[in-house]
Amino acid sequence: MATVNSGLSINRLAGAVGAEIHGVDLNQLDDSTTKAIRQALLDNGVIFFRDQQLSPDQYLEVSKKFGKPVEYPFVKGIDGYPEIIEVLKKETERANFGGIWHSDTVYQQEPPMGTILYAKELPPFGGDTMFASQVAAYNSLSDGLKATLSSLTGINTSAKAAVSKTREDRVGDSGSKADDLISYHPVVRTHPETGKKALFVNVAHTERFDGWSEDESTPLLQFLHQHQIKPEFTCRFRWSVGSVAFWDNRQVQHYPINDYHGYRRSMHRITLAGDKPK
Ligand SMILES: O=C(O)CCC(=O)C(=O)O
Ligand SMILES: [Fe+2]
User: How many helices (H) and strands (E) would you count in the chain?
Assistant: First the structure.
């Protein structure tokens, strides 16, 4: 069912996560629409808009209504806009940016609250992005495992082997390896705005549990990594040029599907500052 609010309609995409918002021009946001959009983000974990036209200046301005744009730790911004990076896969490339289930840059002390992605150029097919609700994933665990996880801290690193393939930890065009970033965050975090609990480990960044060896951590982490992306916790977004996705990095993970070799895909991306997970 669509919810209508001053011309804006919110259409859920799946049972656990994701909604498309229609009837909004992001360049014309008044206060009540901005508030409704923020609530839709909190309620749905990720929201999508279609047919938007955003110059870099307009894009930055829109993002500032929802948070504080920050630079990406390992990637330089587009000319003149340090907070906007291009997420690009060229015709000739095989790896895609972020091509593994993750939430963004969890190895930071204060990982982003959200990320906004704007589609500029797309392949003729493929290149969808999937999202998974970590609130739904947490809620479906047994009380016993919830209790065990509640006391655990995850150690997250930018240096896991799997992620290096996805180029998230490379510096600019040089492809050189950045210094490793490491963070300690609760395995279950409480959302600062909704109060809901969410799993906050991910296969791209979480190395082990604090106080546990890697060997000891791996079986439980592997279970969680399989569990947290079950189809019933996910939605899948089919992009068109001008589409915008805005996800809440505190409650969802995402996975850009790398199924369009030989074609170019270019997105503009803005990261919004977050707080220390608790
Ligand atoms: O290209 C995408 O759809 C998402 C890439 C990604 O992981 C990100 O921008 O954080
Ligand atoms: Fe990402």
Answer: 6, 19
Atom 8, ligand 1: residue with shortest CA distance: 98
Q: Tell me which of 48, 117, 272 to substitute to probe ligand 1's pocket, judged by most ligand atoms within 8 Å of the beta carbon.
A: 117
Q: Which atom of ligand 1 is nearest to the CA of 129?
A: 3
Select the CATH number that applies to the domain covering 2-272 from these four: 3.40.50.620, 3.60.130.10, 3.40.50.150, 2.40.128.20. Answer: 3.60.130.10
Give 158-205 pLDDT, tens digit per residue.
988 766 556 554 544 444 455 689 999 999 999 999 999 999 999 999
Domain residue limits, the chain? 2-272
What phi and psi values does residue 231 have, to the nearest 5 degrees? Answer: -50, -35
The pTM is what?
Answer: 0.94
The model's pLDDT over 49-74, given as tens digits with 9 standing for 90+, comes to 999 999 999 999 999 999 999 998 88
Which residue, among 87, 6, 84, 85, has the nearest Cα to 40 in the 3D structure?
A: 6
